[in-house]
């Protein structure tokens, strides 16, 4: 069974440019999460989806970040415009339901220069 | 807001020694707790999920205990090997399903 797939693995962009990350969750997983992880810290939740509905986006900086999960499967996280402080690893995870075991992808390492 | 703390931040042990990793959380109203492993530059690998009604969960050389009332969980790794070197993260799922992470304990097992 394929795990959570994220792309790209690495991205380097100049500040003020837009960037997008893509996530394909495990088949049959209704819950999808986007996390941000800074070096030496634990992941912090950005947004959680139940099917196509964003049920927890309280930590998403909505002035520059947006996310979507069309048809309740794949998801895209976008930053526009990117700032130097956005440099981090962006992790996607999925679970069958919101209270079951979460599985993570390999992450996208973003560097903003 | 749930606060999750992992102490120590780093640990170095000789091969064969048992590992004891600690996790504490501030709000005991949890649904479950999950332990993860993270290798450098990689994503998180799930190790164990322990439900709030359980006292412990075992998988091979790994054993996780949970004392919900005192807000503590401990991950035991028996007979450590160099391949166990990684960062171990504890994540607590609150009753609102929010999954909150600690900063992790970085383990080095010396051959």
Radius of gyration of chain B: 13 Å
- Distance between the first and last residues' Cα of chain A: 37 Å
What amount of the residues of chain B lies in strands? over 45%
Largest interface: A-B, 24 and 23 residues
Strand content of chain A: over 45%
Structure classification of chain B: mainly beta
What is shown here, in short?
With 113 residues, chain A is mostly beta strands. Chain A has no helices and 11 strands.
Explain what you see:
The complex is a heterodimer of chains A (113) and B (111). Chain A is 0% helix and 49% strand. Chain A has strands spanning 5-7, 10-13, 19-24, 31-37, 44-50, 53-56, 65-68, 75-79, 88-95, 103-104, 108-112. In chain A, strands 2, 4, 5, 6, 9, 10 and 11 form a seven-stranded mixed beta sheet that branches. Chain A starts with a strand and ends with a strand. The model of chain A has no long low-confidence stretch (mean pLDDT 95). Chain B is mainly β and 111 residues long. Chain B contains no helices and eleven strands. The model of chain B has no long low-confidence stretch (mean pLDDT 96). The interface between A and B is medium-sized, with 24 and 23 residues.
Secondary-structure map:
The complex is a heterodimer of chains A (113) and B (111).
Chain A: E1 5-7, E2 10-13, E3 19-24, E4 31-37, E5 44-50, E6 53-56, E7 65-68, E8 75-79, E9 88-95, E10 103-104, E11 108-112
Parallel strand pairs in A: 2-11
Antiparallel strand pairs in A: 1-3, 3-8, 4-5, 4-9, 5-6, 7-8, 9-10, 9-11
Chain B: E1 4-5, E2 10-14, E3 19-25, E4 30-38, E5 44-51, E6 56-59, E7 62-67, E8 72-77, E9 86-94, E10 99-101, E11 105-110
Parallel strand pairs in B: 2-11
Antiparallel strand pairs in B: 1-3, 3-8, 4-5, 4-9, 6-7, 7-8, 9-10, 9-11
